[in-house]
Amino acid sequence: MKVLLNELKQHIEPDKAAFFPQFFKAFPGGYGEGDQFWGIRVPPLRQLAKKYRQLPLNKVEILITSPIHEQRLLALFILRLQFEKGDTDTQHAIIDFYLTHLAGVNNWDLVDGSAPYLLGTWLLDKDTQLLWTLANSEQLWSQRIAVMSSFAFIKQGRYQLTLDLAAHLLQHPHDLMHKAIGWMLREIGKRDLATELAFLDQHYTNMPRTMLRYAIEKFDEPLRQAYLKGTR
Fold it and tell me: d(Cα 123, Cα 118) in Å, to the nearest integer?
């Protein structure tokens, strides 16, 4: 681990270390309050994940429980690589590990970079009640994990889970959930516009504005304006 951490430190950029706490709202009262950053970009983290893809889970645990944001992100990238190449037993162990360490998956980039590729993919042929348990929690990041995990289903042309979660969480108070749901609706629309339109036509007048804007971002301008002006 000492060698890995020393390599990680070689990629520190002081200007990023100063910028990231603001970008990820790590200031008092922000959604990432208390998080710590070394100032390391994503590309070197991905490179290190490939180099240390065989890191045992007891060492990955040191990273995922670290107060340093980039160490936790590196842990998740390593888990993704191990999951992709692992057999069923390995994948099961990784998912158990992931669920046990959700406290470390506590910002939007950590959620978005892991949930669809780990939990979502694992559940493709399994009961999805776990996602509803996460969605019904009072923890923002658990709720976002539920929505983002459904991206794996969207990629397989299976939209109902996302639509049901979106309807259930439609009036969520946090804009990070508005953005996640709007993004997933947009992803459905890229594959099946009629399905997205049917959902929007039913819900858009009650939908938070940010969620709607994300959902219709790629629409032709006349259609986008119709939704924004409430004339659809």
Answer: 9
Distance CA 61, CA 55 (A): 10
pTM score: 0.96
**Could you give the 3-state DSSP secondary structure of residue 39?**
coil
Q: Which of 172, 170, 116, 123 is nearest to 145 (CA)?
A: 116
- pLDDT tens, residue by residue, 18-28: 999 999 999 99
What is the C-alpha to C-alpha distance for residues 33 and 126, in angstroms, rounded to an integer? 35
**Which of 82, 61, 70, 73 is CA-nearest to residue 105?**
73
Token pair in block for residue 78: 């390593």
pLDDT tens per residue, range 68-99: 999 999 999 999 999 999 999 999 999 999 99
- 34: DSSP letter: T
Torsion angle of alpha carbons 21, 23, 28, 34, nearest 10°? -40
Alpha-carbon span 1 to 7, nearest angstrom: 10
Residue by residue, DSSP assigns 124-173 as: GGS--HHHHHHHTSS-HHHHHHHHHHTHHHHTTT--HHHHHHHHHTTT-S
Say which DSSP state 37 is in.
-
Give the pair of three-digit tokens for residue 107: 């910002």
